[in-house]
Q: What sequence folds into this?
């Protein structure tokens, strides 16, 4: 992070992002041996996670990437060492980030939304497309689970996720 901050301070055209998983989960999530937490680059320590949050707060990080990879359930329902890296994220990212960043006060909702929309567009030299998303800060959704074999697996089981996306229009 220090090298990125220095480059930005010198006016160099540098952008940086991290994934929502790296902001929400430390490496200890892998203690469950759940292949959904196997990502590349690997999850960092709790200290790494706090450094990423601080870098997002101070502008060193420009964006949060969703890094959605839609595997079939059978592709991830294997031993950790046999699983491909990554996993779903389109439905899970907002509630997880809301829980980990907005609820404890690390970011306000507008900062989170900018990091998910404007930030990535700027990193790619563009701007977000018009549209809107209705996120309910108290709405709950139960994520897709292994019982739905035609849909991707996820690491959250049947735990309700708060701060869910209610609707998206564009």
A:
């Amino acid at each position: 992070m220090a090298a990125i901050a220095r480059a930005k301070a010198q006016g160099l055209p540098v952008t940086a992002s991290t994934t929502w998983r790296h902001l929400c989960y430390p490496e200890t999530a892998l203690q469950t041996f759940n292949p959904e937490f196997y990502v590349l680059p690997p999850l960092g320590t709790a200290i790494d996670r706090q450094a990423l949050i601080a870098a997002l707060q101070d502008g060193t990080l420009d964006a949060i990437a969703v890094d959605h990879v839609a595997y079939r359930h059978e592709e991830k329902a294997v031993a950790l060492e046999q699983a491909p890296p990554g996993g779903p994220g389109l439905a899970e990212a907002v509630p997880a980030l809301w829980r980990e960043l907005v609820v404890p006060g690390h970011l306000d909702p507008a900062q989170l939304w900018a990091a998910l929309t404007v930030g990535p567009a700027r990193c790619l030299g563009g701007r977000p497309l018009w549209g809107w998303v209705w996120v309910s800060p108290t709405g709950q959704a139960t994520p897709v689970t292994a019982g739905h074999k035609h849909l991707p697996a996820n690491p959250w089981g049947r735990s309700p996720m708060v701060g869910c996306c209610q609707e998206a229009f564009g």
